[in-house]
Design goal:
The protein is of the alpha/beta class. It contains eleven helices and eight strands. The protein has two domains: about 110 residues, Rossmann fold, CATH 3.40.50.12500; about 100 residues, 3-Layer(aba) Sandwich (Rossmann fold), CATH 3.40.50. Helix content is about 35%, strand content about 15%. The strands form two sheets. The protein has a four-stranded parallel sheet, sandwiched between helices. β1, α1 and β2 form a beta-alpha-beta unit. The longest helix is centred in the middle third of the chain and has 13 residues. The relative contact order is 0.15. The model has no long low-confidence stretch (mean pLDDT about 95).
Protein backbone atom coordinates (compact mmCIF):
# COMPACT_ATOMS: atom_id res chain seq x y z
CA UNK A 1 0.00 0.00 0.00
CA UNK A 2 1.38 3.40 -1.01
CA UNK A 3 0.78 6.28 1.38
CA UNK A 4 0.72 9.69 -0.18
CA UNK A 5 2.78 12.11 1.93
CA UNK A 6 2.44 15.79 1.23
CA UNK A 7 5.89 17.40 1.01
CA UNK A 8 5.87 21.13 1.55
CA UNK A 9 8.59 23.48 0.34
CA UNK A 10 9.79 25.94 3.00
CA UNK A 11 8.71 29.49 2.48
CA UNK A 12 12.28 30.79 2.38
CA UNK A 13 15.85 29.49 1.95
CA UNK A 14 17.90 28.94 5.12
CA UNK A 15 20.34 31.58 6.30
CA UNK A 16 23.91 30.43 5.60
CA UNK A 17 26.92 31.24 7.73
CA UNK A 18 30.24 32.09 6.13
CA UNK A 19 31.79 28.87 7.49
CA UNK A 20 30.57 25.85 9.45
CA UNK A 21 33.48 26.47 11.86
CA UNK A 22 35.40 29.68 12.47
CA UNK A 23 38.88 28.28 11.65
CA UNK A 24 40.06 25.53 9.30
CA UNK A 25 43.30 23.56 9.42
CA UNK A 26 44.30 21.17 6.64
CA UNK A 27 46.49 18.11 7.16
CA UNK A 28 48.36 16.44 4.31
CA UNK A 29 49.41 13.11 5.77
CA UNK A 30 50.85 9.81 4.62
CA UNK A 31 48.50 7.00 3.61
CA UNK A 32 50.17 4.88 6.30
CA UNK A 33 49.90 7.46 9.12
CA UNK A 34 48.21 6.17 12.30
CA UNK A 35 48.98 9.09 14.60
CA UNK A 36 48.64 12.62 13.20
CA UNK A 37 44.84 12.67 12.92
CA UNK A 38 44.45 11.27 16.43
CA UNK A 39 46.85 13.82 17.90
CA UNK A 40 45.17 16.73 16.12
CA UNK A 41 41.70 15.63 17.19
CA UNK A 42 42.97 15.48 20.78
CA UNK A 43 45.04 18.69 20.85
CA UNK A 44 43.60 20.97 18.17
CA UNK A 45 40.04 20.24 17.00
CA UNK A 46 37.20 22.02 18.78
CA UNK A 47 33.77 23.51 18.14
CA UNK A 48 35.64 26.57 16.83
CA UNK A 49 38.40 24.88 14.87
CA UNK A 50 37.99 22.12 12.28
CA UNK A 51 40.72 19.74 11.12
CA UNK A 52 40.42 18.44 7.53
CA UNK A 53 42.62 15.64 6.21
CA UNK A 54 43.99 14.49 2.87
CA UNK A 55 46.16 11.38 2.52
CA UNK A 56 48.88 10.91 -0.10
CA UNK A 57 50.56 7.75 -1.31
CA UNK A 58 53.59 6.52 0.60
CA UNK A 59 55.46 3.22 0.41
CA UNK A 60 57.80 1.96 3.11
CA UNK A 61 60.67 1.59 3.92
CA UNK A 62 61.52 5.01 5.35
CA UNK A 63 64.57 6.03 3.34
CA UNK A 64 65.61 9.42 1.96
CA UNK A 65 64.80 8.20 -1.54
CA UNK A 66 61.26 7.04 -0.68
CA UNK A 67 60.58 10.20 1.31
CA UNK A 68 61.61 12.38 -1.62
CA UNK A 69 59.15 10.54 -3.89
CA UNK A 70 56.24 12.18 -2.06
CA UNK A 71 57.07 15.66 -3.34
CA UNK A 72 55.02 15.42 -6.58
CA UNK A 73 51.90 14.43 -4.58
CA UNK A 74 51.87 17.45 -2.29
CA UNK A 75 50.00 19.85 -4.56
CA UNK A 76 47.22 17.39 -5.35
CA UNK A 77 46.97 16.37 -1.70
CA UNK A 78 46.51 19.98 -0.64
CA UNK A 79 44.03 20.68 -3.45
CA UNK A 80 41.72 17.92 -2.21
CA UNK A 81 41.20 19.61 1.17
CA UNK A 82 37.98 21.65 0.87
CA UNK A 83 38.54 22.53 -2.82
CA UNK A 84 38.31 26.23 -3.67
CA UNK A 85 37.93 27.19 -0.02
CA UNK A 86 40.47 29.02 2.11
CA UNK A 87 42.33 27.39 5.01
CA UNK A 88 43.87 29.13 8.01
CA UNK A 89 46.88 26.78 8.06
CA UNK A 90 47.96 23.60 6.35
CA UNK A 91 50.39 20.98 7.66
CA UNK A 92 52.50 18.52 5.73
CA UNK A 93 52.84 15.90 8.41
CA UNK A 94 56.12 14.08 7.80
CA UNK A 95 59.25 15.17 9.61
CA UNK A 96 61.91 13.18 7.79
CA UNK A 97 60.41 14.04 4.39
CA UNK A 98 60.35 17.72 5.33
CA UNK A 99 64.12 17.51 5.76
CA UNK A 100 64.85 15.80 2.44
CA UNK A 101 62.27 17.71 0.37
CA UNK A 102 62.94 21.02 2.12
CA UNK A 103 60.58 23.37 3.96
CA UNK A 104 60.56 25.91 1.12
CA UNK A 105 59.86 23.32 -1.56
CA UNK A 106 56.95 21.97 0.49
CA UNK A 107 55.57 25.48 0.91
CA UNK A 108 55.80 26.10 -2.84
CA UNK A 109 54.08 22.82 -3.69
CA UNK A 110 51.20 23.49 -1.29
CA UNK A 111 50.85 27.11 -2.40
CA UNK A 112 50.34 25.86 -5.96
CA UNK A 113 47.01 24.50 -4.69
CA UNK A 114 46.29 26.81 -1.75
CA UNK A 115 47.91 30.20 -2.41
CA UNK A 116 48.74 32.32 0.61
CA UNK A 117 47.86 29.79 3.31
CA UNK A 118 50.42 29.51 6.14
CA UNK A 119 52.27 26.21 5.60
CA UNK A 120 53.51 24.30 8.64
CA UNK A 121 56.08 21.51 8.53
CA UNK A 122 57.17 19.51 11.58
CA UNK A 123 60.76 20.60 11.10
CA UNK A 124 60.06 24.33 10.84
CA UNK A 125 57.55 24.14 13.71
CA UNK A 126 60.07 22.25 15.85
CA UNK A 127 62.74 24.89 15.19
CA UNK A 128 60.31 27.69 16.09
CA UNK A 129 59.26 25.77 19.20
CA UNK A 130 62.80 25.12 20.37
CA UNK A 131 63.61 28.80 19.96
CA UNK A 132 60.46 29.75 21.89
CA UNK A 133 61.75 27.55 24.72
CA UNK A 134 65.17 29.24 24.59
CA UNK A 135 66.91 26.03 23.51
CA UNK A 136 70.20 26.20 21.65
CA UNK A 137 71.79 22.93 22.76
CA UNK A 138 69.53 19.97 22.01
CA UNK A 139 69.35 16.20 22.14
CA UNK A 140 67.43 14.38 19.41
CA UNK A 141 65.59 11.05 19.41
CA UNK A 142 64.33 9.54 16.13
CA UNK A 143 62.80 6.18 15.24
CA UNK A 144 64.76 6.09 11.95
CA UNK A 145 67.93 4.44 10.73
CA UNK A 146 71.25 6.26 10.82
CA UNK A 147 70.95 6.90 7.07
CA UNK A 148 67.61 8.67 7.46
CA UNK A 149 68.64 10.43 10.67
CA UNK A 150 71.79 12.02 9.29
CA UNK A 151 70.04 14.63 7.08
CA UNK A 152 68.01 15.65 10.14
CA UNK A 153 71.14 16.17 12.21
CA UNK A 154 72.54 18.33 9.40
CA UNK A 155 69.28 20.32 9.26
CA UNK A 156 69.44 21.37 12.90
CA UNK A 157 73.17 22.10 12.83
CA UNK A 158 72.77 24.29 9.74
CA UNK A 159 70.12 26.30 11.62
CA UNK A 160 72.50 27.00 14.48
CA UNK A 161 71.66 24.31 17.03
CA UNK A 162 74.33 22.35 18.87
CA UNK A 163 73.45 18.66 19.06
CA UNK A 164 74.79 17.07 22.23
CA UNK A 165 73.37 13.61 21.62
CA UNK A 166 71.51 12.07 18.67
CA UNK A 167 69.84 8.69 19.17
CA UNK A 168 67.99 6.64 16.53
CA UNK A 169 66.00 3.43 16.98
CA UNK A 170 66.72 1.84 13.59
CA UNK A 171 63.15 1.31 12.36
CA UNK A 172 62.26 1.48 8.65
CA UNK A 173 58.44 1.13 8.67
CA UNK A 174 56.36 4.07 9.87
CA UNK A 175 53.56 1.70 10.90
CA UNK A 176 55.96 0.09 13.38
CA UNK A 177 57.01 3.55 14.55
CA UNK A 178 53.36 4.18 15.45
CA UNK A 179 53.33 0.99 17.51
CA UNK A 180 56.13 2.03 19.87
CA UNK A 181 54.49 1.89 23.30
CA UNK A 182 54.28 5.21 25.18
CA UNK A 183 56.24 3.77 28.10
CA UNK A 184 58.98 2.78 25.68
CA UNK A 185 59.06 6.32 24.29
CA UNK A 186 59.52 7.55 27.84
CA UNK A 187 62.32 5.05 28.53
CA UNK A 188 64.23 5.93 25.36
CA UNK A 189 63.71 9.66 26.00
CA UNK A 190 65.44 9.34 29.37
CA UNK A 191 68.46 7.78 27.69
CA UNK A 192 68.43 10.20 24.75
CA UNK A 193 68.85 13.41 26.76
CA UNK A 194 72.39 14.67 27.29
CA UNK A 195 72.68 16.48 30.65
CA UNK A 196 73.97 19.70 29.07
CA UNK A 197 71.11 19.98 26.54
CA UNK A 198 68.45 22.67 26.90
CA UNK A 199 65.70 20.49 25.40
CA UNK A 200 64.90 17.15 23.79
CA UNK A 201 63.39 16.89 20.30
CA UNK A 202 61.55 13.65 19.49
CA UNK A 203 61.09 13.31 15.75
CA UNK A 204 58.45 11.60 13.60
CA UNK A 205 54.75 12.31 13.21
CA UNK A 206 54.07 8.57 13.45
CA UNK A 207 55.55 8.27 16.95
CA UNK A 208 53.02 8.79 19.76
CA UNK A 209 55.36 11.09 21.65
CA UNK A 210 53.04 14.09 21.92
CA UNK A 211 50.72 12.21 24.26
CA UNK A 212 53.56 11.62 26.75
CA UNK A 213 55.54 14.86 26.29
CA UNK A 214 54.49 16.30 29.65
CA UNK A 215 55.32 12.99 31.38
CA UNK A 216 58.77 12.99 29.79
CA UNK A 217 59.37 16.58 30.89
CA UNK A 218 58.48 15.63 34.45
CA UNK A 219 60.99 12.76 34.31
CA UNK A 220 63.93 14.53 32.65
CA UNK A 221 63.46 18.07 33.95
CA UNK A 222 63.87 19.63 30.49
CA UNK A 223 61.43 20.83 27.82
CA UNK A 224 60.34 18.31 25.19
CA UNK A 225 59.34 19.14 21.62
CA UNK A 226 57.79 16.44 19.44
CA UNK A 227 56.81 16.62 15.78
CA UNK A 228 53.05 16.59 16.34
CA UNK A 229 53.21 18.75 19.45
CA UNK A 230 55.12 21.38 17.47
CA UNK A 231 52.75 21.42 14.49
CA UNK A 232 49.67 21.42 16.74
CA UNK A 233 51.10 24.35 18.73
CA UNK A 234 51.92 26.29 15.55
CA UNK A 235 48.44 25.73 14.09
CA UNK A 236 46.66 26.74 17.27
CA UNK A 237 48.67 29.93 17.54
CA UNK A 238 48.17 30.75 13.84
CA UNK A 239 44.43 30.39 14.43
CA UNK A 240 44.50 32.80 17.36
CA UNK A 241 44.33 30.23 20.15
CA UNK A 242 46.87 31.50 22.68
CA UNK A 243 45.71 29.46 25.67
CA UNK A 244 48.38 28.01 27.93
CA UNK A 245 47.90 24.24 28.20
CA UNK A 246 50.76 22.98 30.36
CA UNK A 247 49.20 19.54 30.60
CA UNK A 248 50.32 19.03 26.99
CA UNK A 249 53.88 20.20 27.63
CA UNK A 250 55.86 23.37 28.18
CA UNK A 251 55.69 24.32 24.52
CA UNK A 252 51.94 24.79 24.82
CA UNK A 253 52.51 27.65 27.25
CA UNK A 254 54.60 29.68 24.80
CA UNK A 255 53.68 32.31 22.20
CA UNK A 256 54.44 31.60 18.55
CA UNK A 257 56.85 33.84 16.68
CA UNK A 258 57.97 32.88 13.17
CA UNK A 259 61.55 33.45 12.09
Amino acid sequence: MTVEIEIIAAGRPPRLEDRPLEKRIGLVILATDHTTEVDFQRMVASDRLGVYVSRIHYANPVTPENLLRMQPSLTEGAALILPDEALDAIVYSCTSASVVIGDRNIEAAIHAAKPGVPVVTPTAAAVTGLKALGARRISVLTPYTIETSRPMADYFVELGFAIDRFTCLGLTDDREMARIAPDEILAFARQALAPQSDALFISCTAVRAAEVAARIEAEIGKPVVTSNLATAWACLRLCGDDRARPELGQLMTKPYREG
